[in-house]
Amino acid sequence: MSRLHVVEIHDQPWCPSSLRDALTDFLQFTINLGRAYDGIVPMLRDAIVRSGATSVLDLCSGAGGPWRRWAGNPRGHAPGLPVLLSDKFPNDAAAVGVLPFHPAPVDATAVPSDLPGFRTLFTSFHHFRPTEARAILADAVHQGQGIGVFEISRRAPIDIALIAFTWFAVLLFVPFIRPFRWSRLAWTYLPPVLPLVGAFDGVVSCLRTYSPAELRELLHGLDSYDWQVGETRSPRSPLVVTYLVGVPKR
Question: Is 52 within the bounds of a domain?
Fold first, then answer.
């Protein structure tokens, strides 16, 4: 199955920000509930150490991804390492929490030089076309920053089905997501727009996700870095994590 760059609703500029935030809130909730990314923590910590980074810059953060839960766990990242969340469409409500959220929009293809740190992207790299995806990697190389890309969606029938049906759990779990927001409740039940949009965008995310072979194609010419590309699975999650990690060669 070839990668298809189909439109996701919450990517569109006309998508209401409250709906976009509700979707990223639920995505973060399910990622943390299933601990989908816990299996990559040792690899990530090793890459951060090898890169010599003294901080982490999370790009395309949405509602914070796994970093919010990891921040309260000393095994989650290198001890004492500050983490800054960022996004092209900052989630204002997500800015309230244990980690700071950069208030201004941040373009992952051209990160401002005054935002240093090991760069991470969780459940977001598939949003970018190949030219943009390569620009993200090239910008990290140009600025000498390590980078880690991690996805829990794949173009496999079982993954597509699992992610599509997971979104209907929103009807059950939305009242328990914190911080509480009336807009999220309205998008879920009056009428059920959030689970429908989430299911659609979830399937599209799978169709847009890069395979390990396609990720390797993006690395041509970026030979000054050591790259790791592959797939793994966390103990408690049925989803396979596709990863790409790069650090400057010594």
Answer: yes
Quote the domain boundaries for residue 97: 34-163+209-248
Side-chain-side CA neighbours of residue 165 (13 Å): 5
Give pTM, 2 decimals.
Answer: 0.88
Could you give the percent of the chain with pLDDT greater than 70? 92
Query: Could you give the C-alpha distances from 127 to 12, 64, 88, 168, in angstroms and in order?
Result: 11, 17, 12, 22
pLDDT in tens, 214-233: 999 999 999 999 999 999 98
Is residue 169 assigned to a domain?
no
* Maximum CA extent, the chain: 56
- Residue 96, pLDDT > 80, answer no
Distance CA 199, CA 234 (A): 23
Residue from 209, 208, 206, 187 nearest 15 by CA: 187
Domain membership flag for residue 19: no
Domain CATH number, residue 91: 3.40.50.150
Q: How confident is the model over 82-95, as a mean pLDDT?
A: 79
Asked if the structure places residue 192 within a domain, the reply is: no
Output helix, strand, coil percentages for the chain, rounded to the nearest 5.
45, 15, 40
